Amino acid sequence: MIDRDMAPLLQVSDLSRHYGGQVGCEDVSFELYPGEVLGVVGESGSGKTTLLKCIAGLLPPSAGTVSFDTRVDGPRDIYAMSEPERRMLMRTDWGIVFQNPREGLRMNVSAGANVGERLMAVGARNYGEIRGNAVDWLTKVEMDLGRIDHLPETFSGGMQQRLQIARNLVTQPRLVFMDEPTSGLDVSVQARLLDLIRGLVRQLGIACVVVTHDLGVVRLLSHRLMVMRGGRVVEHGLTDQVLDDPQHPYTQLLVSSILPV
To answer: Suppose 248 and one of 4, 155, 235, 261 were both cysteines; which one would form an S-S bond, judging by CB atoms 3.0 to 4.6 Å apart?
Structure first.
């Protein structure tokens, strides 16, 4: 259950990113609360991936602010942090699940080492405990423990995505960004992975921003939904309300073309 009496975990205010004369995203504002999942949808070129990169600290905005409620100092603008502070945030309270799992994994080290490496980055040094945590998380994401010492390149795309999820969640982050987490996978693999993500997010109370072109994904995962077109948010509301009774003509077109009645 989302407690809106708590302070927002993430506050995005008037965020814009321009590429010369081209708009990546424009004047985007929203709040995200602990345990809440926000879906961001739109066609290719709508600005959703640019927005994700800006709020995840990967691409400095041209204007606006991104404030995160840190454990020690309370809300802070992430782009006013030092680079070491932002890197530590990404290793502890944040996780990023990329569309291509190869971007989020170390392909030249084993599955177990991929999970253990993130623990070592936050100070873990006991090999037995690190290995035990890796085993625990590979079990949580339903991977074969007999392959804990295998390289990620020997895994299927779905298994690589599961490993990337385990690597990100092992430090128990409070906020996870997901960029098309099931894109490119077979339908049956997508369904199993979505069930896994939904279960882990609810169990751990993680806040998420999920970017996708697939309305079925946000229907299953998200509490609220933002629809983007041309870099701007054209509709924003509770997911079921937006999908069942879209108000903006563009949202109506998306729903009618992707989720026909």
So the answer is: 235
Beta-ladder partners of 10 = 32, 68
In the chain, the amino acid numbered 170 is: V
Token pair of 250, please? Answer: 């563009």
Instruction: Check if the beta carbon of residue 61 is closer than 8 Å to that of residue 29.
Output: no
Nearest to 212 by CA among 199, 200, 194: 194
Contacting residues for 125 by C-beta, under 8 A, at least 6 apart: none
CB atoms closer than 10 angstroms to residue 76: 17
Q: Cα separation of 72 and 99, whole Å?
A: 31
Compute CA distances 12 → 21, 30, 40, whole Å: 23, 5, 14
Q: pLDDT by residue for the chain (261 residues), tens digit each?
A: 576 668 899 999 999 999 988 999 999 999 999 999 999 999 988 999 999 999 999 999 999 999 999 998 999 999 999 999 999 999 899 999 999 999 999 999 999 999 999 999 888 899 899 999 999 999 999 999 999 999 999 999 999 999 999 999 999 999 999 999 888 788 888 888 899 999 999 999 999 999 998 999 999 999 999 999 999 999 999 999 999 999 999 999 999 986 444
CATH class held by domain 1-93+175-261:
alpha beta
Residue 223 phi, psi dihedral angles, 5° rounding: -85, -40
Q: What are phi and psi of 65, to 5 degrees?
A: -135, 155
Query: Domain map of the chain by residue range?
Result: 1-93+175-261, 107-172
Could you write out the three-class secondary structure of 185-196? CCHHHHHHHHHH
Please enumerate in sequence order all residues whose Cβ is within 8 A of that of 24, keeping only pairs 6 or more positions apart, or say none. Answer: 16, 17, 18, 47, 50, 51, 54, 231
